[in-house]
Specification:
This protein is an alpha+beta fold. It contains 3 helices and 7 strands, in the order H-E-E-H-E-E-E-H-E-E.
């Protein structure tokens, strides 16, 4: 009888542990700077940070800020995969976009083979968009869970 109880507790403990989830964010940054002058990369942080260390609570009575050292927030260990820029001297380069798609697909496939499940994708474009707009980036965040 004791063995059945111990086995049941062990199975329940394993089931509860299996529900813990971990998240990971991979970011691709693709330059939309004309003439191919920008830099494009896939960025994958290789170290973890605890958001609580850099979080403070703001109240009406006490408006103090967390004076955390910004250098402590920075991640120095990260993986950087080169991508091609959307533009070259002749204009938009569709081969570069296809090459980036192949590299990003490879990274996503590698993450899946490591047991990560892609759960969200979000993207945005940053550009001045003025008459003389010569800068911009296309950012995509891939959010995984395990």
């Amino acid at each position: 009888m004791k063995q059945i109880i111990c086995l049941t507790l062990l199975v329940m403990g394993t089931f509860i542990e299996a529900h813990a989830q971990e998240y990971k964010v991979i970011t691709s940054v693709e330059s939309i700077v004309p003439s191919g002058l920008g830099r494009s990369r896939i960025i994958d942080a290789q170290e973890e940070k605890d958001f609580a260390e850099f979080t403070s609570e703001q109240t009406a009575e006490d408006n103090t800020r967390n004076k955390s050292n910004r250098k402590a927030i920075r991640v120095k260990n990260f993986e950087e995969t080169k991508l091609l820029n959307f533009y070259n001297v002749a204009g938009i380069r569709f081969q570069n976009i296809a090459a980036n798609d192949a590299l990003i697909s490879s990274k996503l496939s590698a993450m899946a083979s490591e047991g990560w499940e892609l759960v969200f994708v979000t993207s945005a474009v940053e550009a001045d968009a003025g008459d003389q707009d010569g800068q911009g980036i296309f950012v995509t965040r891939y959010i995984f869970k395990k």
